[in-house]
Structure of Peptidase:
Amino acid sequence: MFERFTKDARAVVKGAFEHAEAGGARVVDAEHLLLALLDREGSRASFALSALGLAERREGVRRALAQAQRHAGLTRADADALAGLGIDVSEIVARVEEAHGVGAMSGERRGWGRRPGRRPGFGRGAKDVLERSLRVALARGDRHIGDEHLLLALTALPGVSGEVLADVGVTYASVTRVLYGVGVG
């Protein structure tokens, strides 16, 4: 599949590995792909994100991703569902962090589960994004997978990345409209 990736899409994947390694992550996940997309300039995805006004909200997106990581990767919908059962995720996070330190629930312990010198592998979330980006490209009749297809896949899949993007108005429909000048469908 990677032979179909454009230079920009390959740069996003490389950037995702860099973000994962910098954070001591065992796996590259969807959030790392989103962080790498936020770093890009001069590509189709960066054009779409800028056109949708994300340029001035990038740090807010980064903070939202970090907050979700502190909450063990739970989406707001997950936290709301747990609240319906009487479970306050924020309270649990506060208690765990009080006992074990800030970020204890993120699951990211430096070097834990990785041998020195080995890169992290792809987690389920990143694999889902990569697979969906291929489907998005094929559905559009594109022969290659660009970073715009990665962005569209992130907006189409459930999870923290899609939720964070939707919160700032970056949805599958809005990205499609910016990139292709049409609505979804």
Summary: DSSP finds ten helices and two strands in the chain. The domain at 2-180 is CATH 1.10.1780.10 (Double Clp-N motif). The chain has one domain: 2-180.
